[in-house]
Model the fold of this input.
Amino acid sequence: MTPSFDKVRQLLKLLPGLGHRSAERIALHLLVERPAKLEPLLSALQAAALAVRRCSRCGSLAESDSCEVCLDPKRDAGSICVVEQVPDVMSIERSSAYRGTYHVLHGRLSPINGIGPEELNLATFERRLKDEPITEVVLALGNDIEGEATCHFIRESITAIKPSVKVSRIGFGLPSGSGLTFADPATLRSALEGRRDVGI
Ligand SMILES: [Zn+2]
Done:
C-alpha cells in the first residue's frame, strides 16, 4: 500500500455499490495493471461533470436545459410518468412501451429519513400540471410504504390542481418494494400495458 493508492481506494469505497474489495480491485486495475485506461476515464469524468445536469422540466439527465425526451416532438406531451430515480427512466425507455414524458422525483417521501415534499422535485411537477396540457399521470413508484405515501401525496396535488387528469399506477406485476430499476423490459412492458386507473 502507498498513501496515494490508499486515498483512491478510500474514495472509491464511498461510491454506491462498491465494498472494500471492489474498491481495491478497481484502484489496482486503474493505477497498476491497466494505467492506460485511467486517462480516458479521467477526461470523460471531467467532461461529464461539466456537461451533465438535470433537465429543468422533468429532472432527468440532460446536457442542455432539456433532456432528449423533453426535446423530442414525437413524445406525447399530455402524459407524464412519475418515477423516483433517473435509472427508472432508463428502464422504462428500454421497454419501449411508453411514449409520454417523465418526471423524476429524485427520491420519495420518507418522514423517518427527513425527506418531505420540499426535498423532492415536486414544485416543478405542480408547475407542469398547471402549465402543460396534461391529461394523464402514470405513477411508477415502489409498492412499499414510502412509495404508497408518495403516490398519495401526488394524487392529492392532482386533485387540488387539475382533477380532470387520469391517474394510473404501474408496479402491480413487480415484486413488492423492488423499485423499477432492476425490472426487466418485458415485465415493465406488461406493467405499463396493464396500468390501471386508480382514480382520485
Ligand atoms: Zn426532460
